[in-house]
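Before drawing any conclusions, I looked closely at one protein, both as residues and as discrete backbone shape codes, quoted below without any editing:
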Amino acid sequence: MLNSAVLVLNRSYLPVHVTSARRAFALLYQGIAQAVNEEYRTFDFEAWSQLAVARDVESVGTPGGRIRVPRVIVLLGFDRLPRRHVRFSRINIMTRDRFQCQYCGWRPVRAELNLDHVVPRSLGGRTTWENVVTSCVECNRTKGGRTPVQAGMELIRKPLRPRWTPLAHLMLTGARYEEWRPFLNVVDASYWNVELRE
């Protein structure tokens, strides 16, 4: 339960990050953040820990009793927005490729996926968004140090640099928890964050 996901909002209630419940509790306890409930009320750690916990609500046990796991927290002193630059990382490449082998279309568990250079480095291929794809171990082994054409294989999608950030991806794929939905909905976000005129 402590490793489950919690949506982090900046001071303006814009989503900036997803963290673990463990980290969210630490931020609440340190007074850096407050928990947000379904009615958009905010609670510091003391007030949050005093809330009654229903049987069907996710919670963690402490010596003082059960504490509800917050699904949304708001940072009290952070008003910046997430970076627009998409980090070139394994998880972002796999997210771009929908955790699917780009040669055979198989969607194995993440541990059975790896990254493949479309044009192998031995043939001058570079490690860039446009030359690295997600592949299963079997297809990577079959392709070896050849290009897809040389190996008689075809890519499902041409690899491109994504224009989204991981949080934008969350908006497109839907919220993991119902409590996240109001903060990830593009229409709601534009309503709450449009500049008002005098």
